[in-house]
Queue: 4 jobs
Job 1
Amino acid sequence: MNKLTKLLIVLIAATGSLFAFAPQSHANDAMKEMADRGIINGYADGTYGAGDPVTRQQFAAFISRALDLPEGDFPFTDVSTNSALGEEVGKVYAAGIMQGLSEQRFAPDAQITREQVVMTLEKVVEYSGMEIEAERMEFTDQDQMTSHVLKAIFNIAQYEIVAGFPDGSFQPKLNATRGHAATFIARFLEAKEAADDRYAVASVENDKLTVQRERYETYAAAAAVFESDASAEALVKGGEIFRIKNGIVYGDATHTTVVNGKTVSEVTTVYSGTEFARSQQMTYIEPGREMLYLDATEDYVKVQVGGTIGYVKQNEVELVPESLVTGDDYYVKSVSGELFHRQYNHASNKPETAYPIGPAPADMKTGVKYDSLDGVHFEAQDGSSKITHYPYFQYQSVRTTTNYTGDELDRYIVERLNELNNAEQALAQSKLVGMGEFFIEMQDKHNINALFLLAAAMHESSYGTSSKAQKLNNLYGIEVYDNQTEKGKVYATPQESIEDFADTYMNRSYADTHSIGFYKGAAPGNKTTGINVMYASDPAWGSKVAGHMYRADKALGQKDINEHQLGLSNTPSTNVRAMAGTDQILLYEFGRTEVGIDNAFGYPVVILDEQIGSNGELWYQVISDLKAEDDDYNGIGWIQANLIDKINKIK
């Protein structure tokens, strides 16, 4: 769930040190905001006197107005009972927030010091019912502070209301100014309103999300205002965003679990329904990855992931209004005609290195950024064009065979390692060197494409140099889960890892039609179709593996790309038969009832031939996804042609 502070939800600009070293413009902004809220009064000439000293009774008045305190009496003989400030002193005293310097002396005109400020703010936080969890801070002059002052600082530190100076000191005896007072009261109010467990609406002003003061007891009441207010961009509660009008959703890095005493990030699961039943799980996604926001309630968020529309739990995601999105995923066509994808991690607010997927479509413009939620349907960010393009290796079945020999794969492995920054070390350490012939052997034995096996290993093990590859002979991240990255399956040799991935994980699971729950199509794919749906939390896993296949194929002579006619089923629960005809033996069924938006992401197939079936309709002969021990028809099946859409042009 999105914490408001992460989006710079503010009532004022309050950055920098609490005192003295904050820019004067920030103090003036704080003064103006507090004046607008009736907490601090400006001067007759329109100025705020941010640099002027603030007295104890003035600070008492600021606190009283900020908290809207009830009437109260005081015992002090040096405070006038007839003055407006005297009434405010009575309110803060009765509330237990400020005390006198003695039983009868308040010293109303004495300037308030930094240590008196933090002692008061601790009482303010307590009075407001805000949770106090001490957070230790270190200062070079803390030996000049009493234990009570240090305790007050520690108790309010979590709300970032106070801070020290750049030199590491706190200077407890230094007098505060009106600008300082405005700044830390504004910070307190920001923290208080973020902690308010009622609903509110917020708008974006100056690239910051500003929460309106009105609060609502129910989600429905807040939603009605949110929908009718054109300026509202978020519906919030307790420091968390529950609804936006437009924008993105991403997996929350603070959604964690504890494994072996270590706190780790959890993935976000996408469901087909809002009951969030296990049977409704569609796919899952790692923290920071972009999903399109569609709608939300207080319990769930409706999103698009790849070509899939589904639902995620509110507490597993963060919502960002469109005007506050700081970065995005995009695709570009390079000058060499290749399609590159650059991902953006919204949890860390950092772009990632772009990688090639394959040849870009001819009608894509060089240098123009394109958006795509599924890696197939591209729209130019300048609005000039929309393009549909299925990258070949991303949708080629892993049940195909490569045209390359083991020697050629070995040659490419060495060439690729030589291109790395640490080439000499990589060549000496990589567990992939010399594995070319074994990849071919696994292809022949388990009916899984050798170039795919190599590409997946390169991606998962950093070309055979990762710590898991070096220490565990684990080339595929087997049993290295998102919430247990320090673990992994141990293999005696790299060959054992390759065969385990080829047979156990691909042949008998993700590429096996009888593997209920894992089989979503026997191609790398995306988050709607193919191996990527359930194998990896990274939504770009399929395109990254395809990119490794493309680079290898390009380096070795382009023998594989567009060799086969590829297609995708366009209808839920499509039947694959032994011969061409609806009266023929049923081999298996494409079980997914969800084939993506506009039926664009059914099951990947490789079309080998076509003929008129016994029912008078055209049928396609396709490579079967059955594993060998279940196949009695020489690795082929038949599907009625109108149930398949062709997605590429063969050589």
Job 2
Amino acid sequence: MSDLVRFGRDICGDLAQAERREWWLTNGLGGYAGGTIAGTLTRRYHGLLIAPLHGAMDRQLLMAKADATLDLAGREWPLFTNRWYGDVVEPAGYRNIEQFRLQGRMPVWRFACADRIVEMRIWMVAGEHTTYVAYRCSGGGDEPARLRLKLLMNHRDHHGNMPVTGTTAALKQRDSRLEIEWPEGGQLYLHSTPAEMEPRQDWHEGFQLKREAERGLADIDNNLSLGQLIFTLQENEWVGFAVTLNDQLQFDLPAAMQSFLDRDKSLSKPPSEGVSEPDWVAQMRLSADSFLIKRVLPSGELGDSIIAGYPWFGDWGRDTMISLAGLTLAVGRLVSARSILMSYAKLVDQGQLPNRFTDRGETAEYNTVDAALWYFDAWHAYLEASDDLESLQQIYPVLQGIIEWHIKGTRYGIGMDPQDHLLHAGEAGVQLTWMDAKVGNWVVTPRTGKAVEINALWYNALIIMAGFAERLGESATDYAELAEAVKTSFKRFTHPDGEGLFDLLDGPNGDDSSLRPNQILAVSLPHSPLDSKQQKQVVEICSRELLTSHGLRSLSPRHKDYAHHYKGGVADRDGAYHQGTVWAWLLGHYAWAEYRVRGDAVAAQQRLEPLGDHLKDAGLGHVSEIFDADPPHQPRGAPAQAWSVATVLVAWQRLQQVIDGQ
């Protein structure tokens, strides 16, 4: 594995830069851990263990951090940093960081303390709610050194803040295991290498969460200290602990570390032997694994799904289907792809896939017009990779039902207009497309009517369905004829001046000529309803008005509602979400569309490289959800987003196949 993400004192010793860069780990069950290079808590979502306790998405902050201090020759060296109420930074342990790097996905710090080097590592166990933290000391003479770890715990929803309640936990110590039980229920276990435990429970008040303040949210949190672990350090010997929900954990710190590294090394390899790829693609391959989860679905069965983004998103139907090819097929995980597709088949209702899941992830909401259409695209990609006709035979009736429901009409005004065979969708107060921001009762981009990407997806789905019918020996005539009718009517989207496509037809206020990136899907999808001239016009207008280094703007800078930056409180941010803000997931679609029109696979692939550079910023090793509309396009939103990674991996791989002549 490469050291793509590596920083020295120039970044680590600059608090603003060290806080800007975050590490994130996941466990394949929806649990995660995260923090900053500096060691400060800047988000309510930062912590060593955040895990679902009751529902699939009922994620709770269970351990915030372990503040480490090196005792050496009568001097204390803080290996941690805290930001307190009033913007007070104390202690400034970040100044002792000599180097930070990612080894695969494992964050690794190196602290320089006089003649000693202390290395710290953090990792999570795949398929288990367990986080390990390890330290080792090297260099120097015979002077004895001790490491003191203050254990800061919590027990709150990861979307919230903890008030000081006076509550303490019940503790039981058994050898090197500490059992922690909260008055409201729930047990946590902490295992360590040999150490002295000094229990002392007190609340540490006033942690200032800088990023939450920037987002206009409550920015003060409090954590409960359980006391401290004290380790005697030996040259190059690992010490540390694991915090876990697993009461049967077989604690073996070196073995757990090696297992994590071995798994990451395996996942970072290209799916095909002999394939050469840049380091940033290998790093994105690791990122892809971070979003795949197993969880109990609303059907009550254990299934596979995709987390839309960390830290605050759950699994969304639309995001799952858009991301599936990149997170599974592009990395050679066909079994995972099939499992996700079949899991969602059980959730299809009235021709729709769920948009998202509420009530701790246990109840499906169906307010989406495009998730079901992306489902066809995901199945198409899976079958292209697998030729799994047995699964196609099994899912075919479900896909037939989705088409039938769209023809006759389903929830939220979604249905085919019998006059022009285009899909319309929308009801007052409901957001149905991916441009789904809503502030109170205000739907920022309602797009009620016939949206351009929805009808590109509709045409794509019909052509795919015709192909599926032929492969199974069924009649494809109805699907093919309907697709041709849609293609004919799709010409209505063409702007009369040749400047791309209308974003919406037949809306409450007529046709919407706002220049948005949705039209690029009419070129990038496997089956385009446009001729070559129209495709070229779409790519040219998008490249001229919307293209940036990190994705496509969601609205032209010439529009009166264009938002230059994504910042401020909830209403300000949601109001800018799709009004200019750059979306990384669209860059992969743009790159493929550009290749289709211009025929230069190398140039199209180079469009993706800035997101490779971005892996060293914001969510390290991951791709952010969004960026400011104006240069320098600061990263915003979730620091690790599934479809941002997925669409880039798919585009890079497909373009590489073209370059290699495959």
Job 3
Amino acid sequence: MGSTKNRVSTQLVDYDAQVNALTAGRFKDPFSFLGAHNTQSGTEIRVYLPAALRVELLIDGQVISALRYKHSDLFIAELSSMPSSIYQCQVSYENSDVIFYDEYSFSSTLDEQAMYLFNEGSLEHAYTHLGAQFTTQQGVDGVRFCVWAPNAASVSVIGEFNFWQANRHFMRFHPASGVWELFIPGLSADMCYKFAITTLSGEVLDKADPFAFKMQQAPGTASILQYKPAPILLSEQAIINRQKRNHIDAAISIYEVHLGSWQRAEHNRYLSYTELADKLVGYVIEMGFTHLQLMPISEYPFDGSWGYQPVGLFAPTSRFGDYNSFKYLIEQCHKANIGILLDWVPGHFPSDPHGLHCFDGTHLYEHADMRQGFHPDWNTYIYNYDRPEVKSFLISNAMYWLSQFGIDGLRVDAVASMLYLDYSRKEGQWVANCYGGRENLGAIECLKQVNLRSYKNNPGIMMVAEESTAWPGVTQSVEHNGLGFGYKWNMGWMNDSLDYMQQDPLFRKYHHHKMTFSMVYAFSENYILPLSHDEVVHGKGSLLNKMPSDDWQQFANLRAYYAFMWAHPGKKLLFMGAEIAQRKEWDHDHSLDWHLLEHQSHQGIQHTVKRLNQVYQAHPSLYELDSCATGFSWIDNNNSQQSMFSFIRYAKNADHFMVIVANFTPTAYQHYTLGVPAKGTYKVVLNTDEVCFFGSGYLVTEDKNQLIHSVVQPSHGFDHSITVNIGGLTTLYLEKVNDE
């Protein structure tokens, strides 16, 4: 390396401007000054170390003293030539001596090709490039920090490892991509960190890492260093199982859960992911649900948002444990062949100061125009879907949950709010697109790309849209000008049917169309019938309390309604607590009222749901043709006077069918005649008025085997008919068991 000098003359060159910038924590190009640099007289190594008393450099086995520049925290060592390798700093502080590698002796390892894709809006795995990545660089272990902040004047990494000083770890700026990068050696997992971002106006913003794999719980706001999680690798058989259980002709019955309030431990403590893996998954299996859907689990600061205002989109919330215990929960679902869906929130983000809002001092992730960038309903900010980097961010987040955890799919929240520029806005409060329309073209393209890439990279998944309007082609393929979702929530059916059920049975005949109208559009999309958390919050009451009349009739109404839902075309979704007839509105701060199961009435509802799931999965006629008109036929949809509905569900093999009749008045009927599509013997598969369900026990037939023989008597357009007795507020399922 040549001779070295232990003394440098710091008065020959004026570094006052650089020192002032370093001291202020505002230095856009630190690698142009710090580290090793050639000068007219040789080579200087410059290190800026606040509070250091003495600095020596360990270079190629030699110890070289660095002298303080004036009275600053800048230390300079003079060499005759550039060092041949990375070097270490041996630093004395008031109470300690430390040795570490100089961060400014490492070269950049930023993947320029990946950054090109990021800036293009097509990077699918941005979480492997941005954020905090444990890596080995030039033979040294450490963490590479990368953050997108193109309009910042300066960015530093701050954390417990540098006493949260913004003037210690200045990052390197890459103008082409707008990304800042720095490798810091010697860091370990579970250290807290943030990015100190100096804006062009001089304001310093302490921001959490948008790509952090772990974050502090509120009131903490820091990101936490976490080794990149090893993905859950699905076997070939596991992928086949996923394809089968999510297919359009599969029986899909989803149990929607808020992990924080499904069940609590002693002293109102949250159950951990590990405890939930044992208790919740076991309960889902016992109840016969095929899928478990979790309300958002990306880290969120405000409990009252239920997860719908996330700040850490790549971090499973630590409320219930660490990454490995969350992974265990997912693996237990896989082991039990239970589909696992996550609620995903790409429609908006909260205004928390450590979050994405005005990330680099500008409206980076959101639109600058409040008419496009602010959501008046939720006081949140709306992503700028036209910006390619935002698109890469959201695509990568979807890929992260799907590929890292092998989940079955994502339920995409509030899709309607993304599709329409005038969503929940009055005239003059929104901006039209370039064609003068109200469609959010950027959001539409973003959703299409998310769906295309999700299905391509993760065979057999299901992408679900919570879309509350009549937007055409939500579940059509992108190639056919659709949005590319696999399923859509049928909000129309939910609103109409609940409105009907809340009517006094005496007046239901005037609302008969609310239970039949859904069949006008039932096959226009691949639908899921949702009775979700949204129906039992904000003063709406519980499902049980929506039912009219006295206590017994409320339970009877609910049983009949559930059976009608399970027979109606469309996959099923039920929010936790509905299966035990929770009496109170859902409260995210407390457990479900499991003690209600001490009462036969609530046991009856639970037994009904369990039996419905069993019958549903055992009879292809109830699910194989959910999205095909050949799978459904009315027997009588006009009997409004008796508030009676009867129809047939067919399997792909049309010889296999189920006859359904629902009576939504308290009046029982004897010898009620139903036309049937084929002669033979019919068996009662389900009667919601059975005593075991807390019903009255009204017998459908006197036959001890619950068999009914058809007769040659035309009815409802069929040549054959059967006669049944049907109790009040009752739904019956009847299956043909032979041709005699």
Job 4
Amino acid sequence: MILFPGFVAKFSKTLLLSFPICIFYSLKNQKRSLLLLLKFTQLMKKHILFPFLVFILTGPAAGQGKLFTMEEAVLGGYGTFSPARFRQLQWRSPDTFTWVENDTVYMSSVNGSGKTVAFTLEDLNGMLGKRMLEKASGMPRFEWEGPNTIAFRTSSAFCRADMTGKKILSVINIPGDAGTVEMAPGGQVVAWTRGNQLYIDHAGGKRVKISADSIDGVVYGQSVHRNEFGISGGIFFSPSGKCLAFYRKDERNVTKYPIVNFMTRVATPEPVRYPMAGMESEVVKVGVYHAETDEVLYLDTGEPAVQYLTNLAWTPDEKYILVAHLNREQNHMQMKLYDASDGSFVKTLFEESDERYVEPQHPALFLPGSSTRFVWQSRRDGYNHLYLYDLQKGFIRQITRGEWEVTRLLGFDRKGGNVYFEATEAGPLERQVYTVSLAGGRLKRLTAEPGTHQALLNDDGTWFLDNWSNIDTPLVTALTGTGKRKGRILKKSENPLEEYALGDIEVGSITAGDGVTPLYYRLIKPVPFDPEKEYPVVVYVYGGPHAQLVTNGWLAQSGLWPHYMAQRGYAVFTLDNRGSANRGMDFESIIHRRLGEIEVEDQMRGIEWLKTHSWVDTARIGVHGWSYGGFMTLSLMLQHPEIFKVGVAGGPVTDWKFYEVMYGERYMDTPDENPEGYARSDLKSRAGDLRGRLLVIHGALDDVVVWQHSLTFLRACIQAGTQPDYFVYPTHPHNVRGSDRVHLMNKVSAYFDDFLK
């Protein structure tokens, strides 16, 4: 690590403001470098004199090699150029784990390094054949329900099998037109949806229709609230599988939005219910089905009718259901307890409020062997931390604290005395694994190597399988003990890009416009790079909540398209501005009621930093982003037309009053409550400020950022006399996926080649 602190001694404060201080971060001694970096950053928080506090983490060295095709750059990261990893790596028991190689499932023990065959596809198909069931063409995805039993799905059925006795235990056929399908713990019941209806199929062949009506606009068993608040589905089995909680969504009051399928002989309307900010929203209830009696009841969630019901959790004894109630204003949350036997409200366990917003995203997680004590995740102290509660005693204690975030809760040890989790405690770019006692005590870090770690904890909390990478390490899979027992490396992936020319990667930090907050960037230099030449720069931006684009993961989480562009002579720059994820509540929520202001300010700090490099051609700066990144692309192009020569905005929000209630009102309140904020962020009003070349791209079937956003922006440009370019993907929703994504990125790249290169 090389520090340049001499500025402090030699220059006045005024002169210091014109110089960057750089910390070169050495991969050869990452541990020591990180420690010095953290200490230096803490010091600078107290004595900020510099607009650019920069550390540089250098990635794989640029070199001569092959060039990517667009197909490789877009699709290769999911296949050919993805670091080698274990398939279906999982725990079979606390001491044994398994994985799939070709058509064979192998297993290994924590006590030894060898591997043995657990079972093969031939074994599985033999069992299916004995029951006259369809055979699998490849090893299906499966889960161990116990040391000897797996649950898996074929194309037409859910099955459970005894792998020791080599026999199928149960089969539940799945209708061909089923939508969502969920198997209950124990495998005796399957819940599935058809259209808006919800059904239960029992292993013995019995079928029960849960939904009591077939009304257009009333939906059962599916996700609600536009998948916000951590919601990803609408089916919640109890721990034993004997009961099922489910969502019932009544969206009859929500406007039918006209999505049109243009691929039919006569274009066909395929409307969706889309609740725009400030307009009517859906009414949600939580139902409960009891399999033993076929009774269906509803929780008495009360008024108001429009509220957000999220983070459903069963108590382990199945007596109660916890539901987080969030008001439509999203500034007050109540955790309520309901009796699962009759749906009655029992009591409010606790409440949380914030003048900006509260965003519960994780259900309560109960301790092993307890039906009363649970861990709750909250940002009530400014960062996402863990809190211990009891159904009878209420709040017990805060488990973790500090200016860092718990990013993933992994589980507990067998007795529920210690909790395990991933967190940013080592720095915002890091994901390390930790444990701490629920009784209180010192935090213990369990992973040593700098980078991003993803752990799979065994059932008794004694071992975890750790997949980790950093900027120059593709992927390492390790077996790691949580106590004193030593683990081992299971697989160290070779660099799949060894033969390819990669741009040199720098990851560093500059100071935000507030003069205090560090912002992390990733810079990929052109290949080959000559500091005596000048190069165009493409800013790749997202900039909104729930996303962090820069981490100390493989290639600094860049993907391959930026390197494709680097091979074509561009530098590619990405900055996580204030408003983005994993930096705490204040960092994220500063954008509240004024989207597109702070984010743009911070991105322009990045531009100022780029301009300090002699090799950056400041007359050739472009910008590209999608969704919120599309909004940011337009905002930067229109607010700073003197800087940005070319922009490509995909699926952009152009007017937040056209966006959905849940997300939009969280960050902007309603149009009536915040007319000034909505007016300032309305990009149509800036259409006349367009000076550079702008390409806007949209999917005609977009039901997230509806087509209306870009169409009304085009109309505003026509009225203002400005000339953006435009392209539509007729068959795609919000994201362009599959092989058509190659077409998309060819178009994006060609636009920069035509007007920026």
